[in-house]
Amino acid sequence: xxxxxxxxxxxxxxxxxxxxxxxxxxxxxxxxxxxxxxxxxxxxxxxxxxxxxxxxxxxxxxxxxxxxxxxxxxxxxxxxxxxxxxxxxxxxxxxxxxxxxxxxxxxxxxxxxxxxxxxxxxxxxxxxxxxxxxxxxxxxxxxxxxxxxxxxxxxxxxxxxxxxxxxxxxxxxxxxxxxxxxxxxxxxxxxxxxxxxxxxxxxxxxxxxxxxxxxxxxxxxxxxxxxxxxxxxxxxxxxxxxxxxxxxxxxxxxxxxxxxxxxxxxxxxxxxxxxxxxx
Length: 279
Prior knowledge:
Layout: E1 7-11, H1 12-15, H2 23-34, E2 50-55, H3 64-74, E3 79-84, E4 89-93, E5 98-102, E6 105-110, H4 115-119, E7 125-129, H5 130-135, H6 139-151, E8 156-160, H7 161-167, H8 175-193, E9 196-205, E10 208-218, H9 220-239, H10 243-254, H11 261-269, H12 271-278
Antiparallel strand pairs: 1-7, 2-6, 3-4, 5-6, 8-10, 9-10
């Protein structure tokens, strides 16, 4: 099955997950996510096994042996998911335990108990351009592009160095190596290939780098078209939702803007302001 949508809508719990997937394996996940109809407040009985068909040619790699090995390794790859940061609740999942290859097509199965992690958006979501994500040739570029896409409406992302290393599965690097191998190369590739132009500054505690302050710009030529695409996609989703689901969706969307808590509460409680924001 070819890509269904220009943009992927991915739960933040997946954006914040940690794994040791390769570039090709990440591309497979992107293509699978593109086929999932995400939403808010799904009933438990709707969670069932999901099957995916993805042509090997869609992985932007002509080396059949390398692609085949990546597909087969995917059934062993785990994702570490933080369910509740306050309590430190963690879960380890294997997204695709059943994998088959035949006639140039991979067939993947995601089991029902894993589906909610990829389906449910009520705890927040990240929206990013599929083809941009597929074009990236570094796992650090891929993961950073997801995080930059999550925070681009706020135009910045401030994260501790320790947390960033954890998210990128790069905790073994000292900062000079991390800066060169994980940050600088990824920043350059994302700037060249995607709709975003990120940059960063560091903050120090004493002599050591403790915090990274990313600035995230949307490329000018992309901005209006992207806004149109997002608008049409979000309106389509809103039109299919029940009133209580719309309220949850709007509450989440408010967090993507620089509203204070008081302003958010006012919008949610005032029908006129609520309808204006949705429009």
